[in-house]
Design brief:
about 375 residues, mainly alpha, two-stranded antiparallel ribbon, 12 helices, 4 strands
Length: about 375
């Protein structure tokens, strides 16, 4: 029987360390740019600090809410319905850089795609707990999962945001696989995904240019390959111990988006291999503790919920770091807890609060 324990202190400490790294590195990566654009070097630092504070408050709140309350149908289906409405609502907002990803309310803005990640995890955790013995049943399990998944992913792809949709799809299949989905179904789904992915890349010129730049960035060093080459330069110039905090050069209008998508490159330049491995190690500890507390949860819903939220953070970190190191084509995916961005930081910290609550209930 599950018993009440103290929250996972190592997971809590690891999360705080990543948030602190994020606040420090956002200031280091953005100070000069913020001074140039907004007249204050502290512009992004203040924003990151405010969102971090709100996220920590949300994490504390979620840590004290029994995770089993999320399996209530109103929470499962109501949250999913609200997310779908918001994902539709972004198309009625003014575009930003030719994309419809943001809901804007005055000076505040957030991305519904970030909110859809935990909503989808809660839905799948609830369904998989009920259908644990027939996870390979098309009618009762796979069809409902895939139907909801295709609706959510279709709306996110249309924004367009292919990177986030791929990350969410990966989290969904991690959950299904952990629930006992046959390997033949996993391989079949991977094969079926190839044609639409090919079309979404081949028939969109900017995506095709990113893939070609990934294969050969030197073919267009001042165009599509510029971002990759600047990231290489930043990471490579850091050496073993880095140039020192605030001493990086590539963030000075060379490396695009140094405080968001490519903040790990700034960490590599200023903290070197040692600092880069330290941040990577923190995500490794996060994965370890997240899986550990999930497997020790008192019921199936807690296990699937914990695994899904852990995979949500770790998969996103894997994609971001892989892009910075040119192991994957360039995509606009923030590094959880570290990159500048309120929606991602808030959702990630509240999700950690849910994980901490799960860790308090163990078999």
């Amino acid at each position: 029987m599950a018993r009440k324990l103290s929250p996972d202190k190592l997971l809590f400490t690891t999360t705080l360390a990543l948030v602190l790294v994020g606040v420090v590195m956002v200031f280091s990566a953005s100070a000069v740019m913020a001074e140039e654009k907004f007249g204050s070097p502290y512009y992004f630092l203040i924003r990151q600090g405010v969102w971090a504070l709100l996220g920590l408050i949300g994490m504390w709140w979620a840590m004290h809410v029994d995770y089993r309350s999320y399996r209530h149908p109103l929470c499962v289906y109501g949250g999913l319905f609200v997310c779908i409405l918001l994902l539709v609502g972004v198309f009625f907002m003014d575009p930003n850089h030719n994309t419809h990803r943001w809901i804007r309310l005055g000076s505040l803005s957030f991305q519904p795609s970030e909110l859809s990640k935990p909503a989808l995890v809660i839905f799948m955790a609830s369904l998989l707990e009920k259908e644990a013995k027939r996870v390979n049943d098309w009618r009762h399990t796979l069809l409902p999962c895939l139907a909801v998944l295709f609706v959510v992913l279709g709306l996110i792809v249309a924004e367009p945001d292919l990177g986030t949709s791929i990350t969410i799809g990966a989290v969904a299949f991690v959950l299904l696989f952990c629930a006992g989905l046959r390997l033949t179904y996993v391989l079949g789904a991977a094969l079926l995904a190839i044609p639409p992915l090919f079309c979404l890349v081949y028939f969109y010129e900017y995506r095709m240019q990113r893939v070609l730049a990934f294969l050969d960035p030197l073919s267009d060093p001042l165009g599509s390959g510029f971002q990759i080459l600047q990231s290489w330069t930043a990471v490579g110039s850091g050496g073993l111990t880095g140039l020192g905090l605030m001493a990086g050069k590539q963030k000075l209008f060379y490396l695009p988006e140094p405080h968001t998508d490519f903040i790990y490159a700034v960490i590599g330049e200023e903290w070197g291999l040692v600092g880069s491995l330290a941040v990577l190690g923190l995500f490794g500890v996060f994965l370890w503790r997240g899986v550990r507390l999930s497997l020790r949860a008192g019921d199936g819903f807690g296990r699937f919920l914990g695994l899904g939220l852990t995979a949500m953070v770790v998969c996103q970190a894997f994609v971001n770091i892989s892009v910075v190191l040119s192991l994957l084509p360039t995509k606009g995916i923030p590094l959880p807890f570290v990159s500048s961005g309120g929606s991602s930081l808030l959702v990630s910290l509240v999700s950690v609060g849910v994980l901490l609550n799960i860790s308090q209930h163990s078999d």
